[in-house]
């Protein structure tokens, strides 16, 4: 009799994926080699994924979904793969990143920290390591966060780069992260960002008071077909919205915030003053 390794789906998201794969296969009465033949992998590969010795890939997940008839469903293995890859990210954010890479216009508003697309690697790593110390994420997830950020920032350097509008609450540039040297380089990076021909950087000053129209971070994307989507998040969850009834009021609030914020010249002057005041 062949020894069948017992699986513990609670051990990790990858273990849960493997246990689900075995269950879906056995429900259909398929042996590992039979599934392997349908999806174009070896039986040994199927066994390694089921037992957690080999991580699943996006391609593997998609062909398994096709074999099981789960493509596009809430139970799809592609969705389970995304949860493994982006396990430390808020719901809706991985999907948002996919749209961000195709956007022709990007509008960002942040409170408290510099928006991800504008963060230096040192600044981003400091935030990720802080989350590790709080045990909010693992060291591996911290590395994934920083790596994902580098991938996202590549959108700013593509041949036909998007127009990027950024409004930062004044708290973003005044909150010290990583010490004086890290902050000095981060503030200098913001100044360089503002000099690009496809960017507009503004600071929403504290004295704006009740005229601040947005109280949570917001990302608004205009896609090549001119459709607009919005991603907003709180501390615990994110929400991606494509419905015009929800997106357009957010766009209006963003434009109102732009009108009340400092001009780019005044914003850069404020950032430069803070940078020079950093040892």
Sheet-strand content, in percent, reads 5-15%
Count of folded domains: 2
CA gyration radius, whole angstroms: 23 Å
Physical arrangement of strands within the biggest beta sheet: 3-2-1-4-5-6
Cα distance spanning the termini = 71 Å
Assign the CATH topology of the largest domain. Endonuclease, Chain A
The H-level CATH homologous superfamily of the largest domain, spelled out, is Endonuclease Chain A
Tally of separate helices: 12
Rounded average pLDDT: 87
Q: Can you give the helix content as a percent range?
A: 40-55%
Number of strands: 6
CATH architecture annotation of the largest domain:
2-Layer Sandwich
Which consecutive residue ranges, at least 5 long each, have pLDDT under 50?
none
What's the overall geometry? Answer: elongated
Q: How would a crystallographer describe the biggest sheet? A: 6 strands, mixed
Order of helices and strands: HHHHHHEHHEHHEEEEHH
* Class derived from helix and strand content: alpha/beta
Question: Tell me, what is the CATH class of the largest domain?
Answer: Alpha Beta
């Amino acid at each position: 009799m062949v020894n069948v390794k017992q699986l513990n789906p609670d051990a990790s998201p990858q273990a849960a994926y493997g246990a689900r794969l075995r269950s879906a296969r056995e429900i259909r009465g398929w042996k590992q080699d039979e599934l392997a033949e349908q999806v174009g992998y070896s039986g040994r590969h199927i066994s390694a994924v089921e037992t957690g010795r080999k991580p699943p890939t996006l391609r593997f997940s998609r062909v398994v979904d096709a074999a099981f008839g789960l493509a596009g469903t809430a139970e799809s293995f592609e969705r389970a793969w995304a949860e493994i890859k982006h396990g430390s990210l808020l719901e809706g954010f991985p999907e948002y990143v996919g749209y961000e890479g195709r956007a022709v216009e990007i509008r960002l508003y942040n409170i408290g920290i510099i928006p991800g697309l504008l963060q230096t690697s040192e600044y981003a790593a400091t935030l990720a390591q802080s989350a590790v110390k709080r045990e909010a994420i693992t060291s591996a997830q911290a590395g994934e966060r920083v790596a994902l950020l580098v991938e996202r920032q590549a959108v700013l350097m593509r041949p036909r780069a998007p127009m990027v509008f950024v409004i930062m609450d004044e708290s973003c540039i005044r909150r010290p992260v990583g010490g004086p040297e890290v902050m000095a380089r981060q503030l200098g990076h913001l100044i360089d960002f503002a000099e690009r021909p496809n960017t507009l950087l503004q600071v929403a000053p504290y004295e704006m008071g009740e005229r601040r129209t947005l109280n949570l971070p917001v990302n608004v994307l205009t896609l090549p077909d001119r459709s607009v989507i919005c991603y907003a998040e709180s501390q615990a969850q994110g929400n991606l919205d494509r419905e015009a009834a929800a997106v357009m009021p957010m766009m209006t609030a963003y434009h109102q915030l732009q009108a009340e914020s400092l001009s780019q010249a005044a914003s850069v002057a404020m950032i430069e003053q803070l940078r020079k005041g950093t040892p």
